[in-house]
Recover the amino acids of this structure.
């Protein structure tokens, strides 16, 4: 199992909290990705909206590369609806993400249903 995928899967069941950065108190999608990848998480963003350029810059600056096809452990930058940006970690079964509606971190099995804006993988 990819180490990033392993950390993401270990976070499943944590409660949802906007700007959350700790499994004990809650995580949002940025918190899940930050913990799984060890890329510092930004702050000061809204639940709705998002700037994919800001996400791209953070991952590029942390030594990640943009790729075309997702593998377990990759970061998925998605657009679940107009004006929305969401992050997740690809797993062998689907993806791990913080689901605001379910109020917890979950693994969603199967194909990614949302528009995937970009896919990121560590350089090494």
């Amino acid at each position: 199992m990819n180490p990033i995928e392993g950390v993401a899967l270990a976070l499943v069941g944590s409660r949802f909290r906007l700007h959350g950065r700790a499994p004990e108190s809650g995580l949002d999608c940025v918190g899940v990705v930050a913990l799984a990848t060890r890329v510092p998480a930004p702050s000061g963003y809204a639940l709705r909206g998002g700037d994919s350029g800001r996400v791209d810059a953070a991952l590029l600056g942390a030594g990640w590369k943009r790729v075309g096809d997702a593998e377990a452990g990759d970061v998925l930058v998605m657009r679940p609806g107009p004006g929305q940006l969401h992050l997740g970690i690809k797993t062998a079964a689907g993806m791990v993400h913080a689901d605001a509606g379910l109020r917890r971190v979950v693994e969603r099995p199967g194909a990614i249903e949302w528009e995937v804006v970009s896919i990121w993988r560590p350089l090494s």
Q: What stands out?
A: The mean pLDDT is 90. The two ends are 16 Å apart (CA to CA). The longest helix spans residues 52-61.
